[in-house]
Amino acid sequence: MPKKVSALVTETRGDLSIHALTVTGILAGMAALVAVLDKAPTSAVVWLIVALIIDGIDGPIARKWLSDSEVPRFDGYILDLVIDYVTCVIVPAAFMWQFGVVSHGNLGKIAIASVIGSSALWFSQNEIESSEHYFRGFPASWNMVIPTLWLLDAGPSVNISITLLLSVLTLSNIEFAHTIKVERLRKVNVISMTVWVIALLVMSFQSSEVNLAEKCILLIGPLAVACITADRALQSHRTLQVSTL
């Protein structure tokens, strides 16, 4: 086999290996969905977190190792979006209904429809990230939000209100920071997200209700995201003011 052809085959195999790693995310998503259908919320949360971890590691690996050669049939970016839509939207939406995060009435159905519909529009954007790696609109991270609402147990009315608000933010121009890629406040972002994931994992195994102190720990992640988002909005506003002077 000629050297150029051999090198191309080797690169293609490497690319497909990385795509295979990405595909394992859908297997974790399937396991999470089965757990939801089996009415096993703890298992569902665990598998959603596994899918989140896979999604977090396959991106850096792909950027480092994927070749510049074209893989005719498979696009890693589109593959990642398809899997994310299942693990971050469809499975959490099923979780909402199965475990009473929303009421089993028209309002609950509207809330779930807003999650699925707004997320579909968000994933179909031409540019999901800015050049500075900020997401345009709430990045449909329902795999984190829905289990958090379930553990906080604030009631269907509060949960529906939060769901509708975030669905509106999904379609907004408000910028949300990518956990790893955005340099500004990166340490705060990474630490708070790590605390959030660990808190979700640990508290999902509790047989008793989550107490107030634990709820405060669980809210560290969402509050950090809100503060970093507000910081970005203020930063953009100041930049706009300076440019108009």
UniProtKB/TrEMBL annotation:
GO terms for cellular component: membrane. Gene3D superfamilies: 1.20.120.1760. The chain crosses the membrane at residues 16-37, 44-62, 74-95, 188-206. One of its GO terms (biological process) is phospholipid biosynthetic process. The keyword Membrane applies. InterPro entries: CDP-OH_P_trans, CDP-OH_PTrfase_TM_dom. One of its GO terms (molecular function) is phosphotransferase activity, for other substituted phosphate groups. Keywords: Membrane, Transmembrane, Transmembrane helix. This is Unannotated protein. It comes from freshwater metagenome.
